[in-house]
Design goal:
Strand order of the largest sheet: 5-4-1-6-11-8-12
CATH superfamily of the largest domain: Spore Coat Polysaccharide Biosynthesis Protein SpsA, Chain A
Strand content: 25-35%
Number of strands: 29
CATH architecture of the largest domain: Alpha-Beta Complex
Shape: elongated
CATH topology of the largest domain: Spore Coat Polysaccharide Biosynthesis Protein SpsA, Chain A
């Protein structure tokens, strides 16, 4: 069974972060988001993975490589025709996927647990399609199944009046009937080939469509607050972290699950409360690092409190303030307003930035 991962799109709701980094490479618990999808697929025996990406993309290839580190082979597939919807992404990869069953995984989804039971249901019940469902508070943001007598009878895309509190998550298993369905659907009023229309066509034309509920957590990382929650969920699952090759001052206090990378120096007057992950070659002094914080490699933090925040690599923070619920992009500098004259908050703020003072 092959697999297809989405890693395209523009991620406008995550700007300005996504002006300079592909959303699927944003680090959660200090690992690019797309790595979690690849790991899940490799764990159920997938050997060939296609990654759908924007035309001209180069950073994904550098970060992900050929898949050897996971024991898989990765093929990069440029999306053609522009943003025409999720179903079009799959059809665009038809030559790669061929006639065999496949897993389709939206690369910005984070899920707890194995994909094994979804594949087993598909194979054991000889289905044409399996949908992974999850209960959500805001189903109108997603494809929503209409379920009667334990069977899905229709799937509505972003309905104003949802027929259930389930969302169709970004994990699907299909056979080649997907491509038959695609030839029969038309673009929606927003100009996209909707994946929900594929599912409805399959159901209405007698194909076997099953579903399995995700019993753990699932997160669609479409907004900044979703990224922070995804980071939190992943840190909760983290094993008690190692500290090999790190230098920790005897006066530093480290509580809970804390992973510290090689070459990192934890100096005096530091309190770290896990779960926290700190990358390689960082330096932290006179600071508090609170729960659910991920700190990338090469970061320096002085005289600052940070909690529930994702700090990208090579950031310099020395501000005598408390930072919470934040995404701090690579190579950023955050300093105290009292460090220079005139006093005051000095800002260089790009498009779509969010600043609270």
């Amino acid at each position: 069974m092959k697999a297809l991962i989405t890693a395209g799109g523009r991620a406008t709701r995550l700007r300005p972060i996504t002006y300079t980094i592909n959303k699927h490479l944003i680090p959660l618990a200090n690992k690019p988001m797309i790595f979690y999808a690849i790991e899940k697929l490799a764990a159920v025996g997938v050997k060939e993975i296609g990654i759908s990406m924007n035309p001209g993309e180069t950073e994904l290839q550098k970060a992900v490589g050929d898949g050897a580190r996971w024991g898989v082979s990765i093929t990069y597939i440029e999306q053609k025709g522009g943003p025409l919807g999720i179903a079009h992404v799959v059809n665009n990869a038809k030559d790669f996927l061929g006639d065999e069953p496949f897993i389709f995984y939206l690369g910005d989804n984070i899920v707890l647990g194995s994909l094994k039971r979804f594949v087993e249901k598909f194979e054991q019940e000889k289905l044409n399609c399996v949908l992974a469902l999850s209960k959500v508070k805001d189903p109108q943001r997603f494809g929503v199944p209409h379920i009667e007598n334990g069977r899905i009878v229709r799937v509505d895309e972003k309905p104003s009046d949802p027929k259930s509190d389930y969302a169709v998550t970004g994990i699907y298993v299909y056979d080649k009937t997907f491509f038959e369905a695609f030839t029969h659907i038309k673009p929606s009023p927003r100009g996209e080939y909707e994946i929900s229309d594929i599912h409805t066509w399959l159901i209405e034309n007698g194909k076997a469509v099953g579903y399995e509920e995700i019993t753990g957590w699932w997160k669609d990382t479409g907004k900044p607050e979703d990224l922070l929650e995804g980071n939190q969920l992943l840190l909760n699952e983290m094993a008690d972290g190692g500290r090999e090759g790190a230098e920790v001052d005897p006066t530093a206090v480290i509580q809970g699950k804390v992973s510290i990378g090689k070459g990192t120096v934890i100096g005096q007057k530091v309190l770290i409360r896990g779960p926290v992950v700190i990358g390689e070659n960082c330096k932290i002094e006179n600071s508090y690092i609170g729960p659910y914080t991920s700190i990338g490699r090469g970061v320096e933090i002085y005289n600052t409190e940070i909690e529930h925040t994702v700090v990208f690599e090579n950031v310099d923070i020395n501000c005598s303030k408390r930072i919470v619920d934040s995404l701090i992009g690579a190579n950023a500098t955050i300093s105290s307003a009292h460090a220079t004259l005139p006093l005051g908050h000095k800002l260089v703020v790009g498009d779509n930035a969010i600043v609270e003072i």
